[in-house]
């Protein structure tokens, strides 16, 4: 799911009946908003606090990084008593009431993060979130963004990820015999129309291909969570119509649409009005995952290479969720997120939040090497000082790094 998706805007679209998901720019820092301790990033968390925190924790776990306890505690503090999560609660000590706008996407992402946080110590909290999600399942087997809202491909797929994360088979989670897979099948276009998935039907019940929804639905049809998405064996992606396609074939159909759409430029374009010719980095990262889990690393190579060459500025601007998306894309495609176009994505993600408890062995070794090098340099400088050599320029010339 695109890192820029706004909970408030999506809720508004439900009110006015817009079927196509609306993407909003990441919220900017607010002078009146003090960023809570333990939260990743420095922008206003009103619309994406739980989402970006969850993605950051999942990406760190997949990178063998153990997050700081206060990062996990911050996420735990956002959970309501019934298990649900809102996009952000400024007063977590205050009990949730009817005014708190809980949603399925924040809850499902948090469930996935908590399932791996603390070496499994918070699985009960993850299960509590999943049980709330199950209580809000629609009669068609899917979920909308808000409780009771019409099912959409993105929300249904991220909930499938939460079910996977706590060890539940999505096909066995049903409402009146309808599972999440049934809901996604209803949003799939036939092969003559590309094999893509729609976000939701329009007011007349017509389906329109949506790349963002397709990338999400492919992962959903594979029954995978963000953390469990791993590359399949290399295989050709072909679309094959069937009256009731099994989940794997439905996923392959969606992936074939993405592969065809990415064939020319190697990236997906924004669906925002006025920005149709601009790259959509987050959606492209999600497409890499979708292609990798269906067609293997070879199928994902072109968009992955494009991201390696072009996503640095986007990730820096959008912070932890963007870094997490890129890490998960690299990981799913069998690439190294610590050398992503020359950038260490894991190091960049870690710098957006509280210092992790532990780091990857290779990262520790690199830091040790740097430290040892630093000792020898300063030892030489000390000798120089004794000899009367001025070193003021060495200190004044050092640049201070900035945290996102």
UniProtKB/TrEMBL annotation:
Q: Which Pfam families match?
A: SQHop_cyclase_C
Which Gene3D superfamilies does the entry link to? 1.50.10.20
Q: Which residues form the signal peptide?
A: 1-24
- A GO molecular-function annotation: metal ion binding
- What domain of life? Bacteria
Q: Which UniProt keywords apply?
A: Membrane, Metal-binding, Signal, Transmembrane, Transmembrane helix
Domain (Squalene cyclase C-terminal): give its ranges.
66-171
Chain segments annotated as transmembrane: 377-395
Disordered, as annotated region: 339-369
Q: What is this protein called?
A: Terpene cyclase/mutase family protein
Q: Which organism is it from?
A: Streptomyces cupreus
């Amino acid at each position: 799911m695109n890192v820029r998706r706004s909970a408030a805007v999506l809720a508004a679209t439900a009110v006015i009946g817009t079927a196509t998901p609306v993407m909003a720019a990441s919220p900017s820092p607010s002078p009146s908003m003090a960023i809570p301790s333990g939260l990743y990033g420095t922008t206003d968390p009103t619309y994406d606090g739980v989402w970006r925190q969850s993605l950051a924790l999942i990406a760190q776990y997949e990178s063998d990084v153990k997050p700081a306890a206060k990062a996990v505690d911050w996420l735990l503090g956002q959970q309501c008593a019934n298990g649900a999560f809102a996009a952000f609660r400024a007063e977590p000590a205050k009990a949730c009431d009817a005014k708190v706008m809980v949603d399925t996407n924040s809850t499902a992402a948090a469930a996935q993060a908590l399932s791996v946080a603390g070496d499994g110590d918070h699985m009960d909290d993850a299960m509590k979130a999943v049980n709330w999600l199950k209580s809000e399942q629609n009669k068609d087997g899917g979920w909308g963004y808000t409780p009771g809202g019409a099912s959409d491909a993105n929300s249904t797929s991220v909930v499938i990820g939460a079910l996977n994360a706590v060890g539940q088979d999505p096909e066995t989670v049903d409402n009146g015999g309808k599972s999440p897979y049934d809901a996604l099948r209803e949003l799939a276009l036939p092969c003559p129309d590309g094999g893509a998935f729609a976000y939701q039907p329009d007011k007349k019940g017509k389906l329109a291909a949506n790349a963002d929804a397709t990338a999400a639905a492919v992962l959903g049809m594979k029954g995978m969570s963000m953390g469990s998405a791993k590359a399949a064996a290399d295989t050709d992606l072909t679309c094959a119509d069937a009256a009731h396609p099994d989940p794997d074939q439905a996923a392959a159909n969606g992936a074939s649409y993405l592969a065809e759409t990415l064939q020319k430029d190697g990236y997906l374009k924004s669906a925002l009005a006025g920005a149709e010719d601009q790259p959509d980095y987050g959606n492209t990262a999600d497409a890499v995952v979708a292609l990798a889990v269906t067609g293997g690393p070879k199928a994902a190579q072109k968009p992955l290479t494009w991201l390696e060459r072009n996503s640095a500025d986007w990730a820096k601007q959008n912070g932890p969720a963007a870094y997490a998306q890129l890490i998960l894309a690299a990981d799913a495609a069998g690439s190294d997120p610590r050398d992503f176009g020359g950038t260490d994505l894991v190091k960049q993600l870690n710098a957006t939040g509280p210092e992790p408890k532990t780091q990857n062995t290779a990262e520790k070794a690199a830091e040790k090497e740097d430290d040892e090098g630093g000792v020898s340099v300063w030892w030489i400088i000390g000798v120089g000082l004794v000899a009367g050599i001025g070193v003021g320029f060495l200190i004044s010339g050092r640049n201070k790094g900035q945290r996102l």
